[in-house]
UniProtKB/TrEMBL annotation, chain A:
Residues 3-239, 255-499 form the ABC transporter domain. One of its GO terms (molecular function) is ATP hydrolysis activity. The keyword Endoplasmic reticulum does not apply. This is ABC transporter ATP-binding protein.
Automatic annotation (TrEMBL), chain B:
Its main location: membrane. GO terms for cellular component: plasma membrane. It is a multi-pass membrane protein. This is ABC transporter permease. The chain crosses the membrane at residues 25-43, 63-85, 97-118, 124-142, 154-175, 181-204, 211-234, 272-292, 316-338, 395-413. InterPro entries: ABC_transp_permease (IPR001851). Keywords: Cell membrane, Membrane, Transmembrane, Transmembrane helix. One of its GO terms (molecular function) is transmembrane transporter activity. It comes from Arthrobacter bussei. It is found in: Cell membrane.
TrEMBL record, chain C:
One of its GO terms (molecular function) is transmembrane transporter activity. The chain crosses the membrane at residues 6-29, 50-71, 111-129, 135-157, 169-187, 221-239, 269-288, 321-342, 348-370. It is a multi-pass membrane protein. This is ABC transporter permease. It is found in: Cell membrane. It comes from Arthrobacter bussei. InterPro entries: ABC_transp_permease. The keyword Transmembrane applies. It comes from the Bacteria. Keywords: Cell membrane, Membrane, Transmembrane, Transmembrane helix. PANTHER family: ABC TRANSPORTER, PERMEASE PROTEIN, GUANOSINE ABC TRANSPORTER PERMEASE PROTEIN NUPP. Residues 377-400 are annotated as: Disordered. One of its GO terms (cellular component) is plasma membrane.
Length: 514, 428, 400, 344
């Protein structure tokens, strides 16, 4: 199936997200879209998938113009989409999720799930997916959930498959498997539109690369073009992809975690017998695929988890069993992984969010009364210092862009003397410029002598920031390796291989990987 | 690569459970309570439960039991079950469901024997107690089904009270004017839909907070019906407010079965519709295309949208359907229970239905039983007051509400609402 | 606040007008005179229209005369009497409305103001007619008792929610019924009855225990209104200028972020419900020690339920609630007068009130009806400002 | 429709004011039950309306929906220049007292309360237990099952006085005839029994009545205003189902006022408030208002037992004679019917 986008323009109010974009997807082709945050890639795909109406422009399928009133029309035309945030109903089974919107029915509108199961098994077998139709989606690992998404598209006989940042949450191994699946699909004559920020993957699978900047197509590139060329095409200037930081000068070990175990509500040990230490002036990165206990580990340190055993000490003081407030007062700074859910109160002003965990300390509070002027003054200082782009200190934090929201959280946490700094996913969804700024602030904090823990699922970020790297897999520590270790070793550890084995194996196959 | 997965530390099954002591503790406390009150504090007399009347087609003998015997047997059995639960929990295993079920049944039997035994007349018509419970539960069941339909598709329905009241009003007026109870039934459904329409338009089309719309709708319907009641209905109640009743349809033979016959097979059309509605909503919700889409829209509307399901149309239709159900429930007040409309005659039953819906965990069957429990508690307090108890009548009348608080706080606790319930869906 | 005063003022005004028109139609349609004139509508339509106009306008004039200014009064006192009556009725509405609004801001949907008023009134009343204390101390103690009663009744709900996760909507509804029966029980005991009578009505409160009249004995307006103003100021301060309010608002707007920031969410729920209850208790005091001066089971009227609409109309802001309380107070006071003088049922007031709330909550609808342009560049589809100040407790409550 | 319009200059409809030419204004304020409560508000209101037609006076009324309305409503009436204001129910006592003290030119009459001692307030109260006694006796004598029942709206003296009298009547029957008729729903000793909890929930009245019938009662007396209507529904259904069950109405003669199920109303315990209200107005119109309490008794006909109407055939032959005898004995104070709620 040949797909053609001609002059697609999409406006949100005064913002032009897509500006006369032309794009052709040939049958049996992997067509990659590259572009920085907010370039308009997802918007374009949402237009193609019928979720947004284009303001202007035309879509041609096999040279015939079509209009999509909704995703239903797009699917009927043979377009399938796998969204970055999975569009799966968590409490439904795989079969129910696959059936939804495309239900096989018996008499009287009754569901025929058996039929759906059969189809799932057929596709599973064909592409080696290994998916149980009766598993409940929320119990499945992300990699499998993604396959469910692909099955959803294939069940509907999609000829064109849109994959929007499909690899962001996958382990290197799962990524490899996905790339394999893409090759198979392509061999079956299906076309794929592939969006990713990871240039290596793009280069590996693409037939054609289109680069988008500020809503416009700025050019196409050959998959064989060098990475730096692609990067500068994306951003519009030459970029240095590395952060220069001095080597760490670790001091005294002040933070210790010993034999830490966290039980989830369902009884599972999500963190299991974890022990590690962090010294003043060093960054320990905790790597691992999302959902391997990182969240629970940081929450346990903060006093946000209930069933915790073991010991957590900071400067010799036990933190375990303390309330969140006491942990904060002990000098722990915390950037939670989901800033809009845990880091900020969206309806509160920027000024209020800047003192969210200091509202009852001097100078913001005198007794029960809060000082507006102190709050305002603090806001002005932080906004200037961190270059927070906001209309005013009184704007609701929820109206800020992701990068600026993150700056607010960081500014708040760095605004008091810290004995320990923990940041989860400090730059998730943040654009390149801001990433650079935030990384420099974190390194500066380290250089000031604070022990720092960074939790990140982005290998690039981990490798860039870490002095030492700990890898978590299913709540267990796979080992702690130096920050200079190779990407392949980390990949193996993230897939559940202990550090020593991984180091040995990576040595064996060195050079054979991507 | 294969070594990577095998070398991952395996988790043993035994250490993978948090031992929740909540259930064993509750069971133990209740069992102890049973021992003290039902066994040690048992009245010394016999208790009679009558199952049928003398002139019924099938006459069953009454059950006569000794209060102390029942009290002791039940209490000891409950203690045994509690002990079993403690043992199971200590060894890290789950408490089987049958333990809880048997425990609940024992408690109910012991409690009934004890309260009836303590009354001045320790003799009760069990069939009447149950039939009355069902009667009291009918509007609650319709109301909570209406709630299920709305909330399952992501719209919080606080307006059940208004739907019931408007249904009752419309049924009374339409039936009086037309002289036909069936026209009244139809009008009730239409009235329920009208209330739903406002709820849908404001909460879905104009994205007004659903709780606000619901609360305000209740006030609106109360004011509107109250106004029309005094301005029109009371002026000429012969013409406006003397609806004919819905006839009771007896199913031959089946209606003669003692105890359950009158409850199941001797109802008006509204009564039969109730059973049908519970079954249909249950089956449709979990086994039909409509149900799958409804649940998807209530859990994760965006996912449904990306699969071509029109979220807001789905919600709109379900809210309207809910109006039909609640409206028919409202007709029970004026076409079955009593003959005529009275100001605010639903008396907060819509809110109780809401409680039943949550207590029943957003499941039609669960809501059905929750409503029955409430009806039972209410009628039990009625019956106890006439048998003569030392408990002041004001406290007896608190019983259903106290039971609900205990049920919601103790047994249900944090229940999981449909993921998107109460959250408007704004496309793109 | 700013936005409500400026951009939405027109919408609010039009909402009131629209609601009054709809209410007027209802009055006209059900009026006897109109009905008889409409029987010959086609031969003389002006009769029907005139009768309809007379029916609706006379009702609304009576409403106005009963709530704001009585231009038929023979003395100045009688002329402004209606306004003071409005303030009197508004007093409990404001207090209880503040309670509902405050809980709302903490993410809790408090349908229990009715029960909290009743329990507050019971506590206050008991102290008022059983204890005999000196001037000043007695009234203070009465007020305190009322607030404690309400706080206990509300706080209990908060406690149950925090401990067991039970849904506060259900709890507060049940607690209303339990409170009603509890008060009926108390009133059936001699400790709450008048000597020599078994009627369920308490003795009059001591003269030392009642709010003194605010404008002299010829008006029913009492110092409770001043207390309501103070309560509004206090709630405003509490929500916007105090650490406690900061915590409560954070809990209401985003419980997970609040928890992460070190706020004890459970404590927040309990505290919010206790303060909400105390405010409702204050409404109970206004009734038992201000307007009625005795305790009966009907002392709370339907103020606890009206308070919900008042808080919603006031968008859960303290001064918004205050203004909404005044408006509803005027409707209520005027409605009683209207019913007495024109026979139009006071229920019409409920209709008009709820229509106002609905219309104000949906500005796009009002704009569409009056063909007003949409304001600025608000993206279509969003409810926009209308729902922004109110969190959605239904969703927060159901999560967890 | 398109009927013919009235002539342009026809006088306004309903010109009752012109008829008698008196400018006496009689007014009434209801309690929160409203004037259509099929109980004391309604009876009192009808008394006022009767005075309007019989005496040619003008009337005005204010319906209260909540206790907070009492003060404003009474005030409205005072300001409206009423000569006499009838207030209904003990809950209005404080309001009435206050208004009467402040407006000595206006006369007041208060129904069901005897706590005010002011020159311009006339209490109207009833020794209802006397008539209820007769009803209890009649019920006991007529019951086939040996079980009779009563229940109330709310546990308050004006309600329980009916139930006390009824209970006395039943036990008097048992003493006199050696019968063993049982009373369900009320225990005079502990003053505890079955109550609906309000005067509105008719469905609850019906359910309670069905419970009574299930427990074998065949005569039921609801003392709950409109809720009693639910009892009639239950009784009609029970009779349709082949049972023989009857109701006893209260306040007015239910055979004439209940609007349904007349044929199953055994009798009614009448509390003739309308007559008393009309009486008080007519003495006031004549300028002979006094503040001595009016106590309705069997003797002065303020309370009475209604005729059996359709049920005549179903009661024992000599029952009416016996009841007449009992009435005489009560009037002669040979039998005293005592109730905690009786007027002192
Ligand atoms: N529904 C919307 N309303 C208003 N603006 C929007 C909307 N959706 C996207 N935008 C804006 O349109 C621009 C393009 O967003 P888009 O999601 O297409 O970027 P992207 O290229 O997918 O970025 P990323 O790499 O982060 O996924 C952004 O500035 C974004 O803020
Ligand atoms: N209604 C909106 N108003 C303003 N900004 C929006 C709106 N909706 C989305 N955005 C912004 O647009 C950007 C992209 O949004 P979107 O939901 O498309 O995320 P995405 O990461 O691109 O998702 P995906 O890649 O799965 O399509 C985000 O930065 C988001 O903050
Ligand atoms: Mg994107
Ligand atoms: Mg993205």
């Amino acid at each position: 199936m040949k797909l053609e986008l001609i002059g697609i323009t999409k406006r949100f109010g005064s913002l032009v997200a897509n500006d006369h974009i032309d794009l052709v997807v040939e049958p049996g082709q992997v067509h990659s879209l590259l572009g920085e945050n907010g370039a308009g890639k997802s918007t374009l795909m949402n237009v193609l998938y019928g979720l947004y109406d284009p303001t202007e422009g035309e879509i041609l399928v096999n040279d015939k113009p079509v209009t999509f009133k909704g995703p239903g029309d797009a699917m009927a035309a043979g377009i399938g989409m796998v969204h970055q945030h999975f569009m799966l109903v968590p409490v439904f089974t795989v079969a129910e999720n696959v059936a939804l919107g495309n239900e096989a029915t018996k008499a009287g509108g009754m569901l025929d799930l058996q039929e759906t199961r059969t189809r799932i098994r057929r596709i599973s077998d064909q592409y080696g997916f290994d998916v149980d139709p009766d598993a409940v989606v929320e119990d499945l690992p992300v990699g499998v959930q993604q396959r469910v998404e692909i099955i959803k598209a294939l069940v509907r006989d999609a000829e064109v498959l849109i994959l929007d940042e499909p690899t962001a949450v996958l382990t290197p191994k799962e990524t490899d498997e996905l790339l394999g699946i893409m090759a198979q699909l392509k061999a079956d004559g299906k076309s794929i539109v592939f969006i990713s920020h990871k240039l290596r993957e793009v280069k590996a699978v693409s037939d054609v690369i289109t680069v988008v900047r500020r809503g416009k197509v700025v050019g196409t590139a050959d998959p064989s073009a060098p990475t730096t060329e692609l990067a500068s095409l994306m951003v519009g200037r030459s970029v240095s992809l590395t952060l220069d930081k001095k080597p760490a000068t670790p001091g005294e070990v002040t933070f210790r975690v010993q034999d830490l175990t966290v039980q989830a509500a369902n009884g599972q040990h999500v963190v299991d017998g974890l022990s590690f230490e962090v010294a003043e002036g060093e960054i320990l990165a905790i790597a691992g695929v999302q959902g391997n206990g990182q969240t629970e580990l940081t929450e346990a340190i903060m006093g946000l988890q209930d069933h915790v055993t073991g010991s957590i000490t900071l400067n010799g003081n036990q933190l375990l069993g303390r309330s969140v407030k006491e942990v904060i007062r002990a000098g722990v700074g915390f950037v939670p992984e989901d800033r809009s859910v845990e880091g900020l109160v969206g309806t509160f002003s920027v000024a209020e969010n800047l003192i969210l965990n200091r509202y009852d300390d001097a100078p913001f509070a005198k007794g029960l009364s809060m000082s507006q002027s102190a709050m305002e003054q603090n806001a002005q200082e932080k906004i200037a210092e961190y270059d927070v782009r906001t209309q005013s200190a009184q704007s609701a934090a929820g109206t800020l862009s992701g990068g600026n929201q993150q700056k607010v959280v960081m500014a708040r946490e760095f605004s008091r003397p810290l004995k320990l700094f923990i940041a989860s996913q400090p730059t998730r969804g943040v654009d390149v410029g801001s990433i650079e700024f935030l990384h420099r602030r974190i390194v500066a904090e380290r250089d000031g002598g604070t022990p720092v823990i960074i939790v990140s699922t982005e290998l690039d970020e981990v490798l860039e920031l870490a002095d030492r790297i700990a890898v978590l897999y299913r709540g267990h520590l796979m080992g702690i390796v130096p920050g200079t270790v190779s990407r392949d070793v980390l990949g193996l550890m993230m897939a559940g291989m202990p550090a020593d084995e991984a180091l040995a194996q990576a040595h064996d196959v060195q050079g054979g990987d991507l | 690569m294969s070594t990577a997965t095998t070398s991952a530390p395996a988790r043993s099954a035994s250490d993978a459970t948090v031992r929740s002591w909540k259930n064993p503790i509750i069971l133990s406390v209740v069992a102890l309570f049973a021992l003290l009150v039902f066994a040690i504090g048992a009245p010394g007399n016999d208790v009679t439960f009558r199952l049928s009347e003398e002139n019924d087609p099938i006459v069953l003998p009454s059950i006569v039991v000794s209060a102390p015997v029942i009290g002791w047997v039940a209490a000891l059995a409950m203690i045994a079950l509690a002990a079993l639960a403690i043992l199971r929990t200590r060894s890290g295993r789950k408490i089987p469901v049958w333990v809880l079920a048997v425990f609940a049944v024992l408690f109910l039997i012991a409690f009934l024997t004890w309260v009836v035994g303590s009354a001045r007349t320790p003799n009760v018509a069990l069939y009447g107690l149950l039939a009355g419970s069902v009667t009291l539960a009918v509007p609650l069941i319709f109301g909570s089904l209406s709630g299920v339909l709305c909330e399952r598709s992501g719209v919080v329905n606080i307006a059940i009270e208004g739907q019931l009241l408007f249904g009752a009003f419309a049924a009374a007026v339409a039936a009086s004017l037309s002289g036909s109870a069936f026209v009244g039934l139809l009008a009730a459904a239409v009235a329920g839909v009208l209330v739903s329409l406002v709820l849908a338009v404001f909460s879905i089309r104009y994205v007004v907070n659903q709780v606000i719309v619901g609360v305000v709708l209740n006030v609106l319907v109360s004011g509107l019906t109250g106004f029309l009641f005094s301005a029109v209905l009371s002026e000429d109640s012969e013409r406006w407010n003397s609806p004919p009743r819905l006839p009771v349809i007896e199913i031959p033979l089946l209606a003669d079965i003692p105890v359950i016959g009158p409850i199941l097979f001797q109802q008006t059309i509204v009564g039969y519709l109730m059973y049908i509605a519970v079954a249909v909503v249950y089956v449709a919700l979990y086994h039909s295309r409509w149900g799958l889409r409804t649940r998807a829209v209530g859990e994760h509307p965006k996912a449904a949208d990306t699969l071509g399901v029109n979220v807001n149309r789905m919600r709109f239709m379900n809210v309207l359907l809910a109006g039909v159900v609640a409206g028919i429930g409202g007709s029970f007040f004026t076409l079955v229970a009593v003959s005529g409309f009275g100001r605010d005659m639903t008396a907060g039953q819509g809110y109780i239905a809401l409680a039943a819906l949550i207590f029943g965990r957003w499941n039609p069957i669960g809501a059905f039983f929750a409503a029955l429990l409430f009806g039972f508690a209410t009628n039990l307090s009625n019956v106890l007051s006439l048998l003569g108890t030392p408990v002041p009548d004001q406290f007896l009348r608190m019983l259903p509400y106290v039971v609900t608080v205990f049920a919601v706080a103790g047994l249900v606790g944090r229940s999981r609402a449909p993921g998107a319930s109460g959250i408007p869906y704004i496309k793109g | 606040m700013q936005r409500i005063m400026t951009g939405n003022a027109l919408v609010a005004f039009l909402s009131v007008v629209l609601s009054l028109i709809l209410g007027g139609l209802l009055i006209a349609v059900t009026d006897q005179e109109v009905a008889s004139a409409s029987s010959y509508f086609f031969s003389r339509p002006q009769d029907t229209i005139a009768a309809a106009w007379t029916a609706a306008s006379s009702a609304y004039i009576a409403l106005f005369q009963g709530s704001v200014f009585n231009f038929e009064g023979d003395t100045f006192t009688r002329m402004i009497y209606p306004l003071t009556q409005t303030l009197t009725v508004a007093t409990p509405l404001i207090c209880a409305g503040l309670g509902v609004a405050l809980a709302f801001r903490a993410g809790l949907f408090n349908i229990g103001a009715q029960g909290q008023i009743l329990i507050g009134a019971t506590f206050a009343g008991w102290v008022g007619f059983t204890l005999h204390l000196p001037v000043g101390i007695h009234l203070l103690l009465v007020i305190l008792a009322g607030m404690v009663g309400g706080a206990l009744w509300g706080g209990l709900v908060g406690l149950l929610k925090a401990r067991t996760g039970a849904h506060e909507v259900i709890l507060t509804i049940m607690f209303n019924y339990i409170a009603t029966n509890l008060v009926l029980y108390f009133l059936s005991t001699p400790a709450f009855q008048r000597p020599g009578s078994t009627n369920p009505i308490s003795p009059q409160l001591d003269a030392t225990a009642v709010y003194p009249p605010l404008l002299g004995a010829s008006f029913r307006l009492h110092w409770g209104f001043v207390v309501a103003v103070l309560a509004t100021v206090f709630v405003w301060w509490l929500l916007n200028r105090s650490t406690v309010g900061f915590e409560l608002r954070a809990v209401g707007a985003n419980p997970s972020a609040a928890r992460t920031a070190g706020v004890n969410v459970s404590k927040g729920y309990i505290l919010a419900m206790a303060i909400a209850g105390a405010l409702a208790g204050l409404a109970g005091v206004a009734q038992v020690s201000g307007t009625e001066k005795v305790l009966t089971s009907g002392v709370a009227a339907s103020f606890g339920f009206d308070a919900i609409t008042v808080a919603l109309l006031g968008r859960s802001s303290p001064w918004g609630t205050f203004a909404a309380g005044l408006l509803f107070g005027a409707f209520r006071a005027g409605g009683v007068a209207m019913q007495a003088s024109t026979g139009t049922s006071i229920d019409i007031v409920l209709v008009v009130q709820s229509l106002i709330v609905l219309f104000i909550a949906a500005p796009p609808l009002v704009r569409a009806l009056f063909r007003l342009p949409a304001p600025g560049a608000t993206r279509a589809g969003k409810g926009g400002s209308s729902t922004s100040t109110t969190p959605t407790p239904a969703s927060t409550g159901a999560a967890a | 429709g398109c009927g013919a319009p009235p002539a342009e200059d026809a006088p306004a409809a309903g010109g009752s004011s012109a008829a008698a030419g008196t400018d006496y204004l009689g007014c009434i304020v209801s309690d929160s039950g409203g004037f259509d409560d099929r109980s004391f508000n309604q009876s009192s209101y009808e008394g006022l309306k009767k005075a309007e037609t019989d005496l040619g006076i003008q009337t005005n009324q204010a319906e209260s929906q909540a206790e907070t309305d009492f003060g404003p409503n009474v005030d409205q009436m005072v300001q409206g220049g009423c000569n006499l204001i009838v207030t209904v129910g003990f809950l209005l006592a404080d309001t009435t007292k206050e208004a009467a003290a402040a407006n000595t030119e206006t006369n007041f009459a208060i129904v069901d309360d005897n706590s005010i001692d002011l020159p311009n307030v006339k209490p109207i109260i009833y020794d209802t237990a006397q008539a209820a006694f007769l009803a209890g006796y009649a019920a006991a004598a007529t019951s086939e099952t040996g079980k009779v029942a009563t229940y109330g709206g709310i546990n308050i003296p004006t309600v329980t006085i009916f139930m006390d009298g009824f209970a006395e009547g039943v036990s008097y029957f048992n003493e006199e005839t050696g019968g063993e008729v049982e009373l369900l729903g009320w225990d005079k000793e502990s003053q505890n029994g079955t109550f609906v909890g309000n005067f509105e929930d008719q469905a609850a009245g019906k359910t309670n009545t069905q419970n009574f019938i299930n427990e074998g009662a065949d005569i039921i007396m609801p003392v709950a205003g409109p809720v009693g209507s639910g009892t009639l529904d239950a009784v009609i259904e029970a009779n349709a189902g082949g049972k023989d069950v009857k109701a006893i109405w209260v306040d007015s003669d239910g055979y004439e006022t209940a609007g349904k199920g007349e044929e199953f109303i055994l009798t009614s315990v009448m509390k003739l408030m309308g007559d008393a209200v009309e009486d008080v107005i007519s003495t006031d119109v004549d300028g002979e208002f006094d503040n001595t309490p009016y106590v309705g008794t069997l003797e002065n006909g303020g309370v009475a037992l209604a005729p059996f109407h359709d049920q005549e055939a179903n009661v024992p032959d000599d029952l009416q004679t016996t009841l007449d005898g009992l009435t005489e004995q009560i009037v002669a104070e040979e039998i005293t019917v005592d109730s905690a709620a009786s007027p002192q």
